[in-house]
Structure to design on (500 residues):
């Protein structure tokens, strides 16, 4: 899986890429006047890296909720939850590594700011074991990190500035990579803007904004005039994740569209003047005297169990295109393990093995694999409702590693060892365990890379370092550079295998 994402073309028609791994470490600032194409740029970036990294979008206008239709994002309606529930949701977003869109369009401006601040703070305060890498996109960032106090009260301003400063200044060590987009740099707090190392500057006309943009891009005052001449969808990019020198980018096409489409000219109604006047004034007094409907009815209280379903059951239901299971009246039973699911329905494992043996399977997103799994099961009449996305990922790892090659006793031992290993590294770890248990040579680096869904040797080395730090394997390297891997806890292991 490449860490390079294509965002558009330069003036010569060459592709311009963003290094996703570098972006996670260095953050991004996007600026452009209304209509310059900021939202289009953010949408292109999110679409191109969907499935590669967790995404959290703070969406004050509801522009990005359509990502859920194509990429399985969970849409969180900020108006439907209490402040405590918003904090709980943020914690579960980090725990389950769910890609979400926090939609705030149904709230008043100050409520939007407080809701986003609570959500960002809870993301930042997540336990260390949940510090997974995630892109955090904040559209209209000048609302959430204003340079001046404006009309919001002091408590709200302190809360939101603290949340945005933590995201941009200290979020990297917690896996949070901030991407902030603003209409005007002059309205964005300087301590937030200054923490970004990558910049994409769109069209702007005010001298103060042009000068700040030119300063960030390393351009002189005369060159700053280029910013005024940019067309819609054109940006000047600079930064370690984009380019070491300023480069012009014309953002590419997107697959999803905003809920609020761009305005286009439409024919005016051809009703005569007296008919139009009648339409405007008919029963006007009665309508004015009637009670006006509330902007939005108060949502009913939601039990905590619904919050878990919003992050686990809902994405699975959308991806598998099956209706969600009805809520049980009695307390639910403990979830079954992947091994128990396979024993109850052996055909489920057959379908999983077919998927695992298909070409390029490990390079596909887990959500897409799970959707294919559910469709194949339905086509064959195999019950698979009890296998959720988490259980499927473990079954898929079992199939990739060839666990069926082991006798029942060794298989049970290996499954017990894999119980606390994360799904993202489970397949390569199990391949090492199976090789140790059978006495075979350890997988070569290219095979581990395939199981890991990567083609990068450096990522395989980092994977082995991670497994060793977790105490799952022991890696020894001699002076000649030959590496041997030992898996603790396998009684049948007689000698360490070799990898290249």
């Amino acid at each position: 899986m490449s860490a390079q994402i294509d965002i558009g073309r330069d003036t010569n028609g060459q592709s311009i890429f963003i290094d996703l791994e570098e972006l996670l470490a260095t953050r991004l600032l996007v600026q452009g006047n209304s209509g310059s194409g900021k939202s289009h740029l953010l949408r292109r970036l999110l679409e191109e890296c969907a499935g590669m990294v967790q995404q959290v979008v703070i969406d004050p206008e509801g522009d990005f909720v359509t990502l859920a239709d194509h990429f399985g994002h969970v849409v969180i309606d900020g108006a439907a939850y209490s402040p405590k529930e918003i904090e709980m949701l943020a914690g579960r977003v980090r725990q389950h590594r769910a890609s979400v869109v926090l939609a705030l369009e149904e709230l008043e401006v100050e409520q939007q700011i407080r809701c986003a601040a609570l959500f960002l703070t809870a993301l930042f305060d997540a336990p260390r074991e949940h510090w997974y890498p995630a892109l955090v996109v904040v559209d209209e960032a000048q609302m959430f990190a204003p340079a001046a106090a404006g009309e919001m009260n002091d408590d709200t301003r302190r809360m939101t500035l603290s949340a945005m400063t933590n995201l941009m200044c200290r979020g990297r060590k917690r896996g949070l990579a901030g991407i902030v987009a603003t209409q005007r740099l002059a309205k964005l707090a300087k301590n937030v803007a200054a923490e970004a190392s990558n910049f994409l500057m769109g069209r702007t006309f005010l001298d103060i904004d042009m000068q700040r943009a030119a300063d960030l891009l390393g351009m002189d005052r005369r060159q700053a005039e280029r910013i005024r001449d940019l067309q819609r969808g054109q940006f000047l990019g600079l930064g370690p994740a984009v380019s070491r020198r300023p480069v012009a980018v014309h953002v590419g096409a997107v697959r999803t569209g905003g809920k609020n489409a761009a305005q286009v000219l439409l024919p005016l109604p051809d009703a005569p003047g007296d008919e139009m006047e009648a339409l405007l004034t008919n029963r006007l007094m009665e309508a004015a005297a009637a009670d006006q409907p509330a902007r939005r009815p108060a949502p009913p209280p939601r039990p905590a169990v619904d919050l878990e379903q919003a992050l686990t059951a809902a994405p699975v239901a959308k991806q598998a295109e099956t209706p969600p299971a009805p809520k049980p009246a009695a307390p639910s039973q403990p979830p079954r393990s992947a091994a128990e699911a396979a024993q109850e329905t052996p055909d489920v494992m057959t379908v999983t093995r077919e998927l695992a043996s298909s070409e390029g399977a490990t390079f596909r997103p887990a959500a897409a694999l799970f959707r294919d799994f559910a469709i194949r099961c339905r086509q064959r009449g195999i019950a698979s409702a009890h296998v959720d996305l988490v259980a499927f990922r473990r079954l898929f790892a079992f199939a990739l590693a060839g666990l069926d090659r082991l006798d029942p006793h060794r298989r049970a031992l290996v499954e017990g060892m894999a119980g606390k290993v994360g799904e993202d590294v489970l397949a390569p770890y199990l391949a090492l365990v199976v090789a140790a248990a059978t006495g075979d040579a350890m997988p070569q680096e290219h095979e581990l890379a395939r199981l890991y869904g990567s083609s990068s040797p450096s990522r395989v080395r980092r994977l082995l370092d991670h497994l060793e730090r977790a105490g799952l394997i022991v890696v020894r390297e001699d002076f000649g550079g030959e590496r041997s891997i030992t898996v603790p806890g396998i009684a049948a292991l007689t000698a360490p295998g070799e990898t290249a």
